[in-house]
Amino acid sequence: MISIQDLTVRFGEVRQQVTAVDGVSLDVAAGESFGLVGESGSGKSTILRAVAGLIDNWTGAISVDGRPVTRRRDRAFYRLVQMVFQDPFGSLHPKHTIDRILSEPLIVHRIADIENRVRAALDQVQLGARFRFRYPHQLSGGQRQRVAIARALILGPRLILLDEPTSALDVSIQAEILNLLSDIRQQSGVTYLLVSHDLGVVAHMCDRFAVMRQGKVVEVATRGDLATGSLSHAYSRQLLLASRGYDRAVIDAFADE
Amino acid sequence: MAMNEPILDVAGLNVRFDTPKGEFHAVKDVSFRMCREKLAIVGESGSGKTQTGRAILGLTQGRVSAERLRFHDIDLLGLDAGGWRGIRGRRISMVMQDPKYSLNPVMSIGDQLVEAGRHGRSPEKARGMALDMLAAVKIRDPLRVFRAWPHELSGGMGQRAMIAMMLMAEPELLIADEPTSALDVTVRLQVLAILDDLVKTRDMGLIFISHDLNLVRTFCDRVLIMYGGRVVEERAARDLQSATHPYTRGLLACAPEIDRPVPRLATLQRDSAWAEVTP
């Protein structure tokens, strides 16, 4: 579904350049759920932003559904690829009703039957029509993230980029959103590229995942590898140990920043 | 002082806010006693955990009432401004969640540390102590960080600097409100190890406010679980898995676990009775 070859993203002026993503290659099959896990600054979100066209200065090759992605994305690209952002408080327009937020992609893409599609999208994320004419501030964090997911789904994309979709939410709300995302993938066969700092979320949502550090993929592993603890890279093993909770004895062995 | 003598005794603590929509009862009849231990207050957003921590230091905007709010033999409810000055930052300190917003952006780290430790000390002595404290929180180059500005530090470094600042007065009780939630997982554990060592070596009490049940289970000694302003359950941290309250059990069940993958996560069925005050 998506193939990334030797992707490199650099930020800043020549003299103080930061290489955020450093020669990353990935292949994700159609219908797969693939995770990118790592700590802050590892480049995981930057990969999503480069794919989505939110960053221009990348080099390498990206292709989605067999077609190479060009600098200037056409409308067809965004019918294929949509994104859900981390912060449900910042990613919805505060002065637009839910109805307008969900209608806008349809208007931009000149799709008819807006009314029914908006209703269907709200049903799909289990919000229901009563939310249609509310504003984002009248919704809880979990409800807002459902709206963001509905907005991503409304164009019927085949690939959804999920950037920490639950890290701003309480753990009980996270469970509801992750279950919703699982249901959507089961029903529609959509492909997920999911970024998270939480190994537990990645283990739950993704068949395979890449562990990232300082812009590089250090290891690609499967959910099974994680459950049996058979990770090959020292950094991945450290991440796994750290995710299991506090253990004074193991912490002194951690390699520093 | 004996290890098991309570340093903090809270009974029937209530925090109420007046809102245009009527009174909001944020903390309802919370009672606990703590010794020199690591006590966790856990709950989701809006559970009242932060307001409980702030009420102890008299820092909440709400109306506080309690049957008892005692630190050693001091009645915190009856303190005047002068009385609070002797407690806040000296005997009880607080570490906030985000070093980005809690450090003064226009003051160097060193100046902020020295300011926190100035009472009763000469500037030279306070400076020496600041460098010692930065070393105590495992900062490898204390002098560099002493001279640095808050924006020059990473999140983990900033949080260590803030803990160092809180320790300048050598408090007996440290209230840490989500001190590591903004940090990466490995840095988080390193900061926790520092707090853990400090509790042991300085014989300090720690109130650790968190939303992360898995973390407090492995880090703290005792856990209070809050829901809707109430403490619904109290457990020894190591016995958390055998919690009986449906809310605690629900919270434990709905977090994805690496070692025990499930096809579908359990969701929490909330019961409005959990938040009701039982007479």
TrEMBL record, chain A:
GO cellular component: plasma membrane
InterPro entries the record matches: AAA+_ATPase, ABC_transp_ATP-bind, ABC_transporter-like_ATP-bd, ABC_transporter-like_CS, P-loop_NTPase
Keywords from the named record: ATP-binding, Cell inner membrane, Cell membrane, Membrane, Nucleotide-binding, Translocase, Transport
Main location: membrane
GO biological process, one term: transmembrane transport
Residue ranges annotated for the ABC transporter domain, each copy included: 2-239
EC number: 7.4.2.10
Topology with respect to the bilayer: Peripheral membrane protein
Complex formation: The complex is composed of two ATP-binding proteins (GsiA), two transmembrane proteins (GsiC and GsiD) and a solute-binding protein (GsiB).
Protein family (similarity comment): Belongs to the ABC transporter superfamily. Glutathione importer (TC 3.A.1.5.11) family.
Protein name: Glutathione import ATP-binding protein GsiA
Species per Swiss-Prot/TrEMBL record: Dongia mobilis
Automatic annotation (TrEMBL), chain B:
UniProt-annotated location(s): Cell inner membrane
Chief site of localization: membrane
Membrane topology: Peripheral membrane protein
Leader sequence segment: none
Span of domain ABC transporter: 10-253
InterPro entries in the cross-refs: AAA+_ATPase, ABC_Ni/Peptide_Import, ABC_transporter-like_ATP-bd, P-loop_NTPase
Keywords recorded for this protein, A-Z: ATP-binding, Cell membrane, Membrane, Nucleotide-binding, Transport
Source superkingdom: Bacteria
The protein's name: Peptide/nickel transport system ATP-binding protein
Protein's organism: Dongia mobilis
